[in-house]
Amino acid sequence: MLLYSKELNREINWTNEIAVGVGATETIYAAVNAFVQPGDEVVVLEPAFDIYTAQVQMAGGVCRYVPLHVRASEQTGAKEFYIDEPTLAAAFSSKTRAVILNNPHNPTGKVFTAEELELIAKYVRQYPRVIIISDEVYEHILFDGKKHVRVANIDGMWERTLTVSSAGKTFSVTGWKVGWAIGPSSLIKGIYLANNWIQFSVSTPFQEAVANMLELAEKPYKGFPTFYAFVADQYKQKRDRLSKALVDVGIVPITPGGGIFLYSDISTVKVPESFVKPGMTKDWAFCRWLTITKGVTAIPNTAFFCPENKAEGISCVTF
């Protein structure tokens, strides 16, 4: 708890301010089922990890999607994702129960700034029953000096936020399925209650192993000040190597600030007609062609969008 007490600027009470789950996926599922009732609305930023929509729907809720848009950075000129405030504002109403936030973001690799998180908090404050479920599983995988800002640290948001993370991505142990949520006891209690009917328990040996890993990760590792710094450097090298390879063949990636994905523009790539099935969008046809002919599999980006917004992802894939 020392790590998160430091990160969240408060002493975390391990008895009632943390809930352990079977990975981050189950922890988010428990949070959604604890607080979302049939007819409630949940704000989701797109493109989005596809479990969010399914989990909200299984609870009887309705997703209100806010697409992230692309623009040229004022500082560097490089493409970057941003939140359109009017679109965000329009997604909130008296029916809104939660916001599902993913930071760093899957699949774009966007790292939200304090100003962007404050923008989200601005609308959360306007609706007293809204909570934030913040999926932060890529919290330690950051590049180019990016800093991880926690939405729970934004003014007034600790009381409204469940911060979710896991060991899987950071330590490459996704099969262990150990995740957790941290937040005020009033919200953590909801996860405890939901988990009575979702999971009986989390593997005790894996919990013990993860606890040891979290402690050891703060120490120097292979010439880096911490294991976290080492992991981030390893992923940055892979990001840069893959980015160069893609550019060399005419695919343009949008450089991620964090995470493990590379969101890439394939609009200039022509897919052979023999790989395009009736009704198939370009991103799916491209991934089919790439898998069959090159043995490399990417993710078609329309999979990250709701039906109304799929056009946003047709010309892009994620590696």
From TrEMBL:
InterPro entries: Aminotransferase_I/II_large, Kynurenine-oxoglutarate_AT, PyrdxlP-dep_Trfase, PyrdxlP-dep_Trfase_major, PyrdxlP-dep_Trfase_small. GO terms for molecular function: kynurenine-oxoglutarate transaminase activity; pyridoxal phosphate binding. GO terms for cellular component: cytoplasm. The keyword Oxidoreductase does not apply. Residues 16-308 form the Aminotransferase class I/classII large domain. It comes from the Eukaryota. Keywords: Aminotransferase, Pyridoxal phosphate, Transferase. Pfam families: Aminotran_1_2 (PF00155). Its cofactor is pyridoxal 5'-phosphate. Coiled coil: none annotated. Belongs to the class-I pyridoxal-phosphate-dependent aminotransferase family. This is Aminotransferase class I/classII large domain-containing protein. It comes from Phytophthora ramorum. The lineage of its organism: Eukaryota, Sar, Stramenopiles, Oomycota, Peronosporomycetes.
